[in-house]
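Issue 218. Parser rejects a valid record. Input:
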Amino acid sequence: MVIVTVLSLVLLNIERRENYLEIVRTGISTLTYPLQFLADLPSRITGYLSESFASQDVMLRELDKMRQENNLLQVRLQKYDSLEMENMRLRSLLGSSYKLSDQILVTELMQVDLDPFRHQIVINKGSQAGVYVGQPALDAHGIMGQVTHVTPWNATVLLVTDSSHTIPVQVNRTGLRTIAVGTGDISSLRLPFLPNNADIQQGDLLVTSGLGGRFPAGYPVAAIDKIERDPGAHFTEATAAPKAFLDRTREVLLVWTASTAAQSATGNPTDTTGKPDAPAPAPEKGGN
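Output the parser choked on:
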């Protein structure tokens, strides 16, 4: 042991002065580097995997957060689309209302009658807003129907396609007057009283004639879409498609005609039932 210790001290002294063992040390380091690398490899792999899993977890959390934000933005975008469409509908209504010299009221759809044999809707304005029985209702495209029942806070509108509803119309192209009758089909009206030699064509626009004083004259009602002539019959069978979007409209315009406005101005306002103090004509049913 003493000999080994003395030899070590001698070698250390020689190395410190002459640096003879540097080549040997370098060779030994080169030979042992693969062993050092293999020995350190497990810890390196463990560290890399831990860092990878941690990074993946962070990325997954960020991805989940971005998905949630994307879903929220998609919901908001849907709302913006809905608001844009509502804005377009209101602009259409305002575009129609400026043409009216009569007073108008914009209402919203509350309920649709689920009875397949009755075409009725409920709107969110009633006698508190001056709504009365028999009042014309329309949308941005044409006549929808007329008010048949009123409460203080809402009203029922009978649509023109209801089988019990009739409306005086005229062919806009020729001025020919007739009656449009509801068929019970939301997309169709019947014209049962046209003479067989009547000058009508597919696509002819039917507008309100103003007869009876219920509907103001000149408003679109329907367009003729089918004509059947039987030489042996007295009348032509014709149908027409309503211009109003009866199954899609959410906003409904109620119109006070000039005569109604004048009646109100003379101190004869509607009462809480929605009917004028003076007798008002009943909703039109059957032929006129």
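Fixed in the parser; the record now loads. The longest helix spans residues 22-97.
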